[in-house]
Amino acid sequence: MRHLPALLLAASLLAPAAARGDVPAPAPAQGEKAPRPPALEVTIDRSKVDLKGRQIEVKLSRAAAKVRIKVVGQSGAVLAEEEKPFGGAAAGTPLTVTWTPSSDETVARIEVYGHDTQGYWAGVAILPWNVSIPHEEVQFETNSDVIRAPEVPKLEASLQKISEVVAKTSELGKITLFIVGHTDTVGSAEHNLALSRRRARAIAAWFKGRGLKLPVAFEGLGESAPLVKTADQVDEPRNRRVDYILSVEPPRLPSGEASWKAL
What we know:
By secondary structure, the chain is an alpha+beta fold. The protein is built from 2 helices and 13 strands.
């Protein structure tokens, strides 16, 4: 299952540009204060953040003069800094900015600053870091979510890998372990959805019970996101799986009733 990058939006910052304005405001009458425009908002479409293509789509709530970005790697090194003018593009216009990194280091943070035509700017930061933990799948008995004793060594090995990754990336902020359950197409879709959710929860509970200090969330997707596409009622072992994802922000789930559940 492919995971779109996970993203964290920081609080917006608003400040006037130093001693200038691209569009001067009318002078206030004597004794009156100059009206302040509504706060400038910078928004980012999560689905349009393309780390492989190295581009991001931004929208401003007012006419856009330019957008600046800073791309920071996992080591803290600045991988790219770009500035693109937009010549007063109307509020709400999709503004695409690309970058060329200095290395192939994993992107940990992208800082985005939008400047309007009145000389104001606002900034947000996104943290598109996440990592999938490779592991050996736990084998459950038919229609069961009970973790059997012979399967425990698999979970112990996964817990060790999770701990090692977290120890190396703690500076990124609050990391959560997200667990996603999947099934094959044998049985009804409703039954498989419930079963995958119970199994994901069982594994989440096992990790917490063994002292994992991270926040843990889980969800089941049943047969809706197969690793190998099959016809209905096909017993495909590769589709009976659970994903372990470490991320700063919840990975996107398919639309519908799917939602992350905290343990």
